[in-house]
Design brief:
The two termini are 12 Å apart. Helix 2 (59-87) links the parallel strand 2 and strand 3 (94-105). It is globular, with a radius of gyration of 20 Å. It has six helices and eight strands. Mean pLDDT is 92; it is low at 1-8 and 14-18. With 250 residues, it is of the alpha+beta class.
Length: 250
């Protein structure tokens, strides 16, 4: 039964790369300067954003567009004004710049990597987010988490115990795989992790159920934010796995 599940899900990803990608529209992009009435050259804080939009009248396209429209509305209504207020009068020229990259556009999934770069007075920082939208099934048009993508949770599951159990199962499985990679990198010195790094520190800074996106081949790319398990100079750390590798561990 496990082998059949692996075959079916792998076929889904393989065929997904072949067919009907979503048609992109112009980016949902803009810039807001604070205090109000300033331009980019005189502003104390500049908030820039760019998210993808889908040029289609179907429900899935509309839901994806609404997802990013809400993110912009929420940021301009709360996060951006609050950040501007915190640095008001400091003499700092601060900014937040949000960019996005479409990493997978297949029949079954539409994945976006979002990078938020900020300077708010102390040091520049970068935060990565991944959004994987389902295009088919009961989750179509919504961002799916790792347990749904792996097929260990049904789209209509509402049992909180099962939701927590399967999410923890997926998280622990991926954390173990990433920890093994970290051990190899520590051995060969390819990444300068913190000397006191432990599995518990990794666990507290890495949430695999949402800290991932898909690439064009359907591989899952997990990430650790900069400064969490290694110095900021190491940047964001990426850990790619094929779907087959993950399903073999379930």
């Amino acid at each position: 039964m496990k082998k059949l599940l692996v075959i079916l899900i792998c076929l889904m990803f393989t065929t997904a790369a072949m067919a009907d990608p979503l048609i992109l529209g112009a980016d949902l992009a803009g810039m807001v300067c604070y205090p109000e009435g300033c331009d980019e050259s005189t502003a104390e804080y500049v908030y820039r954003y760019a998210y993808p939009t889908i040029d289609g009248g179907d429900e899935v396209s509309q839901m994806i567009n609404e997802f990013y429209a809400y993110m912009v509305e929420d940021a301009l209504g709360f996060a951006a004004p609050m950040a501007a207020e915190e640095i008001y009068g400091s003499g700092i020229q601060a900014y937040t710049t949000i960019t996005s990259e479409i990493t997978c556009n297949s029949d079954d999934f539409f994945a976006v990597k979002v990078v938020s770069e900020s300077f708010l007075g102390a040091a520049a920082s970068s935060v990565v987010r991944g959004h994987v939208f389902a295009r088919t099934g009961d989750k179509a048009g919504t961002v799916v988490s790792l347990p749904y993508l792996l097929g260990i949770l049904d789209a209509d599951e509402t049992d909180s115990w099962l939701l927590d159990r399967q999410t923890a199962k997926a998280d622990n499985m991926v954390r173990t795989l990433v920890w093994d990679v970290i051990q190899d990198q520590l051995s060969d010195g390819s990444v300068g992790y913190y000397d006191d790094l432990t599995y518990e520190i990794l666990e507290g800074n890495f949430y695999p159920e949402e800290d991932f996106y898909l690439d064009a081949d359907g591989n899952l790319i997990f990430f650790l934010q900069e400064g969490t398990v290694a110095p900021v100079t190491e940047g964001v750390l990426y850990f790619p796995f094929t779907l087959e590798e993950l399903l073999d561990e379930i």
